[in-house]
Design a protein that fits this description.
Elements (H helix, E strand, L loop, with lengths): L1 H10 L3 E2 L2 E2 L9 H12 L9 H4 L2 H43 L4 E6 L4 E4 L1 H7 L20 H14 L3 E8 L5 E12 L4 E9 L1 H52 L5 H32 L7 E5 H11 L1 H6 L3 E5 L5 E5 H17 L6 E8 L3 E7 L7 H6 L20 H12 L4 E6 L3 E9 L3
Helix pairs in contact: 2-4, 7-8, 8-13, 9-11, 11-13
Length: 449
């Protein structure tokens, strides 16, 4: 055996067996060898049999090299285990940073196929991880926004410049959420890819939509305010002008008028004052409604009594135009609503019916009911209106003043109030009209709460 070892030694100068000698060790292994020799020097592994003390020099060297190499391997293994532990810790940190990030991440290849995605993005889409791999990202983009993705992805691949854009992404259940995508170009040895950061901006978008909605309402309110002042200026001018003219006549010629003439002027002044009061009352109610100052206090109300009181309050107006008022309402019909609001609705509808009815005609009020609602209809025999006027009559920004059959002014504010008050009570209002044949204004109310 010794001869064999010697032969190998001669064939490979500077080597002892298959292992490098201490004086021929490469510099990069010197620290490791030194550590191994320190381990050997600190142990009593040779004292058991005293082999090195008895064996020839060659065997002692070979055994020493074997021992050193064994320790080197053990130290290397320990270093590898420590390195592996560090790599595992780094990988776990990467997993947390990548998969549990507050934003979504995904990698898309040149063909738009998803190659990698983190858990946050998977949860955003509410899908299984395996269902994303090699699937087109466009499959999860709202059809109306896919052109945005194609354009931005094309620009990214062509210029290499980062792209930022917003679009809607689809979840598994078909609903969508708004997302902001930030994509960067990534070049590898074999291919190029697109790395995308996805942020859910649904709350921000909803806030923007709410701001837009409020702004639209504000613009509408401003338009209604302008219309409101226009109505005040136009419709108060006529009765005020007449009222002021009558007072001037009385002041300048009071001694020249007979008692009958004075009575006639007094009646005219009373009518002008009542018209102004009615208009101002409606304007005040409309203003209070738009400022949220009207309280809704519903209760169960007997409909016949409410209609009877309304007709009695307008009997003088009907008598002046010789118009007969009739109503057909079952005595046991009750509705659930706000008494004050319903009184304003009925008074405005009946006042309009009298205003636009011809002299000597009639106005009727009818009520019909089913299991849940009561429908009240106020019908006149007046001038009527075409379909174009009918569809605009309940909208303040579209309505126009109309003159009654006796020259009575009409602002349209009363019908706006009717619509608001009826809808606040869970009902609806509409009109059926034919030019020259009169109109029927109908509104529904719930029977019970």
């Amino acid at each position: 055996m010794r001869g064999v070892m010697v032969a190998k030694r001669k064939a490979s100068p500077g080597k002892t067996g298959f292992f490098p000698r201490g004086d021929g060790a490469s510099p990069d292994r010197t620290p490791l060898r030194r550590r191994a020799e320190d381990v050997i020097g600190s142990t009593d592994i040779w004292s058991a049999e005293g082999l090195e003390a008895q064996a020839p020099e060659e065997i002692r060297r070979t055994l020493h090299e074997l021992r050193v190499h064994k320790i080197e391997l053990e130290l290397q293994n320990e270093d590898l285990r420590q390195t592996q532990a560090k790599l595992d810790a780094i990988r776990e940190r990467y997993f947390d940073l990548f998969n549990l990030a507050p934003v979504g991440y995904c990698t898309v290849d040149d063909n738009g196929l998803i190659q990698e995605a983190n858990l946050t993005f998977i949860r955003m889409l509410d899908v299984i991880r395996g269902n994303l791999n090699n699937k087109p990202l466009s499959r999860f983009i709202h059809k109306d926004d896919q052109d945005i993705f194609y354009l931005k992805n094309k620009q990214l691949l062509a210029t290499g410049e980062p792209q930022e854009y917003e679009l809607r992404l689809l979840k598994r259940n078909g609903t969508f959420f708004w997302a902001r995508l930030e994509s960067v170009f990534a070049k590898t040895e074999n291919a190029s890819a697109c790395r995308i950061v996805i942020s859910d901006i649904t709350e921000r978008k909803n806030a923007e939509l709410e701001v837009a909605r409020v702004n639209e309402q504000l613009q509408l309110s401003l338009a209604e305010k302008d219309k409101f002042f226009s109505i005040i200026a136009h419709d108060l001018r006529s009765p005020l002008t007449g009222f002021i003219g009558l007072t001037r006549l009385l002041v300048d010629n009071v001694r020249d008028y007979s008692a009958n003439e004075m009575h006639k002027y007094a009646v005219s002044m009373k009518e002008s004052a009542e018209k102004m009061f009615s208009l101002l009352e409606n304007l005040l109610e409309w203003s209070r409604l738009n400022r949220g100052m009207i309280m809704f206090e519903p209760d169960e109300i007997g409909l016949e009594d409410l209609i009877l009181r309304t007709t009695e309050s307008l009997q003088t107006v009907a008598d002046q135009k010789k118009i007969a008022m009739r109503y057909t309402v079952p005595s046991d019909v009750k509705v659930f609503g706000d008494r004050r609001m319903l009184d304003i609705v009925l008074r405005n509808l009946l006042s309009n019916a009298l205003k636009f009815s011809s002299l000597g005609s009639s106005v009727s009020i009818q009520a019909t009911r089913d299991e849940a609602t009561v429908v009240i209809a106020v019908q006149d025999n007046g001038v009527g209106m075409d379909h174009g006027a009918a569809v605009k009559i309940f909208s303040l920004d579209k309505t126009t003043s109309r003159i009654g059959t006796k020259g009575e002014p009409g602002s349209g504010i009363g019908l706006i109030l009717c619509k608001e008050f009826v809808e606040m009570q869970g009902g609806r209002i509409w009109v059926e009209s034919t030019p020259g044949q009169g109109s029927i204004f109908k509104f529904s109310l719930p029977i019970k709460n």
